[in-house]
Amino acid sequence: MDAAPWTLRAVTAADAPAIATTRYLDHPEAHEAIAHYARWLAPKIERDEYFGQLAVVDGALVAGAGCVLLDWGPRLDFGPVHTLVRINNVFTVEAWRRKGLARLLTQRVLNECRARGLVDVTLAGTDLGQPPYRCLGFDFKRNEMALRLSDAYAPAAPRTNSGSS
User: Would you call 20 helix, strand, or coil by DSSP?
Assistant: First the structure.
């Protein structure tokens, strides 16, 4: 069997800008949001409040998955644990999709969670991401709601070519 063309490795604080960029692939003009996220993420990685896995090919990130650890406190639906794991920053660049990388990296993150004794994991899955997450054992919790109190930091809508001259 041939070796995989990618190398897998743990995220480091130096990866924060690249990971931040992947959050805004549809908004490459969102430089300020990318910079804010990178500045938030790097110390989280250094304090071990965020960890993850990356796939690298020829020095370029092609896929990743991570999680942030949230001090959540005991709850009836999560038990007496104080840490909630939130999976995020799961991405695969288009040329590397459909090769199982996102699933592989997410599984590695889940394995690390188990090794750390973390048991309650959540995520927000896109329509594209739902089948792989279900295969990993995730289920919908329909009691989640959201409210945005300000749109001050919402990224601009992506520009489209209207075809007019």
Answer: helix
- Residues, the chain: 165
| Type of residue at 137 | G
Rounded to a whole number of angstroms, the distance between the first and last alpha carbons of the chain is: 53
Q: Report CA-CA distances (Å) from 81 to 60, 78, 87.
A: 37, 7, 17
User: What is the structure's pLDDT at 165?
Assistant: 42
More confident residue, 98 or 26: 98
pLDDT at 42: 98
pLDDT-above-70 percentage for the chain: 84
Do the beta carbons of residue 126 and residue 161 sit within 8 Å?
no
Cβ atoms of residues 91 and 63 within 8 Å: yes
Instruction: Name beta bridge partners: 51.
Output: 67
Record the tokens describing residue 137, joined without a space: 């054992």
What is the pairing mode between strands 50-57 and 7-10?
antiparallel
Given a contact cutoff of 8 angstroms between Cβ atoms, the answer to whether 159 and 144 are in contact is no
CB atoms within 10 A of CB 10: 14
* Residue 77 in tokens: 């639906």
